[in-house]
């Protein structure tokens, strides 16, 4: 299964909304939570409609609109989205209203907009797209599930152009809940120093990203996504390496053919050892990079890494802000993304130059 990335649109804690810019102005946060840089929504939504929409819905519609424009597609053949939390802000509003109003006189707006498939539905309504539409809610595998569905849909010939995206937001209440169970760092540190941290926890992030995948190669494509694999709670590093070897063998490649590896290093001393084992042994000849100091940690952060890989392959450059050590890649032909959420949901992506 493989497909070509024809367009992308992403809203993140970095200035990534302009598809022509590639991390030329990296923003260093000094916070335990990285909020997104949001565009002016009046360019994408009717102001009357926008007032009733939650922030994450507006972010996703804007990101998907940019993606479609970038790809030159008006209406996709299918829409797949992945989200771990759905429209969390509206969920919280509805639950609080239940408590504060003693389960009486509740307005339905927050409830209607709190469902996990609200974003994909709103995008379809905006586009008047009546085609296949599905949302995956699989925690740390939400994005990967949407990608696999999209790749299979293209592989069996049911669609030629598929819009795949993710959306997850951070709220104050959710941040505090996760903080209590040890997700986040207790100290504040500059995000560019995250890789040197030796304490538990990471920094919280959020984002919305959309990608247009096509079945046929064309001029201007960003990259080719060749495969995606998931590993749930691997027992040891040998199981991880065997899965990667299996993926590479299926595509006629070896570890030596991988020019760049993008790791999901998040500064949590409990889990980063998985990445360092791969960097120091299995991929010791590949250029090492990382990304969560730019976008923060969240269940669908792999989407930021996919954007990063696609831009690297198209522009044939590696931003200094993501490098770990020296850049040994003269040309960028093959990239592996290795990411994990809480060392339970592990995912591997293989991308190649078009």
Q: How would you describe the overall organization of this protein?
A:
The chain is built from eleven helices and eleven strands. With 354 residues, it is an alpha/beta fold. It folds into two domains: 3-214, Peroxisomal Thiolase, Chain A, domain 1 (3-Layer(aba) Sandwich); 224-352, Peroxisomal Thiolase, Chain A, domain 1 (3-Layer(aba) Sandwich), CATH 3.40.47. Strands 3-2-4-5-1-6-11-10-7-8-9 form an eleven-stranded mixed beta sheet, with helices on both faces. Helix 9 links the parallel strand 7 (260-263) and strand 8 (287-290). The longest helix has 17 residues, at 55-71. It is globular, with a radius of gyration of 20 Å.
What characteristic shape results from the CA principal axes? globular
Characterize the main sheet: 11 strands, mixed
Spatial strand order of the main sheet: 3-2-4-5-1-6-11-10-7-8-9
Strand content range = 15-25%
Instruction: Give me the CATH fold name of the largest domain.
Output: Peroxisomal Thiolase, Chain A, domain 1
Structural class by helix and strand composition = alpha/beta
What is the typical, i.e. mean, pLDDT? 95
How many structural units, i.e. domains? 2
Number of strands: 11
What is the rounded Rg?
20 Å
Please give the alpha-carbon distance between the first and last residues. Answer: 15 Å
Low-confidence stretches: none
User: Per CATH, which architecture of the largest domain?
Assistant: 3-Layer(aba) Sandwich
Number of helical regions: 11
Helix-strand string: EHHEHHHEHEHEEHEHEHHEEE
